[in-house]
Design goal:
mainly beta
Length: about 110
Amino acid sequence: MAETVPLHLAGNNAPVAAEVTLEPSKVTGEIPAELSGQFFRNGPNPRTGWSPHSFAGDGMIHTIALDGGRARWYRNRYVRTPLYEHPGESASRSPSTPRRAGSTTGSPPPTPT
């Protein structure tokens, strides 16, 4: 029996493997000349290729630059977080994870005033 790939990891939702910067060679249709600037999209993109949920794992920013009726370039970059540096590691093991009050591994809880 074949494994079912979760929706957040399949088709158009599948993780993007590489960071790229591309200049389009062809645009189908027209881009209005009045559109000028950059369009940003951020979303999940697990660097390891798997995550238990669409909100878990690394993020990626996608950008398209538009100017004068042309798409100038497309870029994508991972969001650089502590988990990016340690793929597959639990967020609870990350050095930047805030500790809860009373945690035995963090600072003692604050003293009420």
